[in-house]
Write the structure tokens for this entry.
Amino acid sequence: MPEVRAIASFYDMKDKRARNLGDEFFCEDDRAAQLNAYGMVEILGQPAVEPIADEEPAEEPKPKPKKTAKKKESE
């Protein structure tokens, strides 16, 4: 969700509120592109995504050791 800044005053029908010149807000990627194409906002950038502390980084799966047949002892 990129952060955008209003470069013109308009009524945001999706959020049902007035956006004034200089208002900064977050919206979906496609909506930001649409509002930018209409000349209503400028896209400031994507917010930084912080890694979640509980999750460990994904690791490559380690190859499993090959199984070997055991020799039978004859009595």
Observations:
- The chain has a mean pLDDT of 83.
- The radius of gyration is 27 Å.
- Residues 3-45 form one domain.
